[in-house]
Amino acid sequence: MSDKKVNEVIIIGSGPAGWTAALYLARANMSPIVYTGKQPGGQLTTTTEVENFPGFPEGRDGPELMMDMEKQAKRFGTEIIYKEVSDINFDARPFTMKAGDDEVSSHAIIIATGASPRMLGLESEQTFWNRGVHTCAVCDGGFYRGKTVAVVGGGDSAMEEATYLAKLCEKVYVIHRRDELRASKIMADRALGTKNIEFIWNSTVEEVTGDTSGNFPKTTGLKLKDTQTDESRSIDVDAMFLAIGHIPNTAFLNDKITLDDEKYIVVDERQQTNIAGVYAAGDVHDKVYRQAITAAGMGCKSALEVERYLTREGLAGE
Ligand code: NAP
What we know:
By secondary structure, the chain is an alpha/beta fold.
């Protein structure tokens, strides 16, 4: 994008919220541009089977579903740019933003940047990052075929990761800080009923241990602490997969938009942020439902609101 034309609307993010917003705006002839960010397709590209997106009675492969959403938005004229937006100036109209070397402007913005996996915050986690410390079983599980791995967390993601890894690995530990799972019953039962999954309750990971003498670090185990007795123990594992929730991708906003105390974007019932013409949709705002279908719904709402806003302000088709 080298020209200096003012775009009607820029959508930042390419998960279900971003693609749905683009689809609606493209069909309304609003010439949307999507900046995909560094993970085009968002979190569903790191999942396997999506069984709860209506319309697919047999389920759908996550990455395929996202590619179809992209194709559908593109079919009606969405422009797609595979770059990450790093900064936005909300102080002047039209808004201007930076993405790599691009400087682009638009009358309206939809922020749909989603959320990223939470880390434990251990130094050793960084030492062994991608060398036994991972956040996506579908992406990296294949490296540990026939080995022993651990999944940390007690939610649906942890159950999904553990069940997936159990098919590849000899043994999977699930390490959870409480003695009760947060996961839905169906996903919990599936993991609890899998023979090569062993649950380690009331435990946190204190350290990732391994060999750092070679060219590349190699994870060999975890040091755990019992949250009830404070006792430590070590287990041998070849990898640890973190599934302990997510952090909204709002750092690039530099607190220029109203965020809540967990850094999720605050919106009203129309997906409108505290700045007129700026909307937010999907996991970047939603910490309650966090589903593909709810994100898509918010993408739709924000697109309809952008259309109304641009028409009301006399900015449509400028
Ligand atoms: P989540 O439900 O927030 O669960 C996060 C888990 O990590 C919790 O068990 C939590 O423990 C634990 N945890 C958080 N911080 C931790 C820390 N610092 N150290 C150790 N443990 C920590 O997140 P999620 O599992 O990613 O699920 C997010 C949403 O996506 C949910 O609504 C879920 O239903 C949905 N989801 C659906 C599917 C599906 O249907 N196919 C698959 C994946 C996710 P506590 O329980 O003690 O808080």
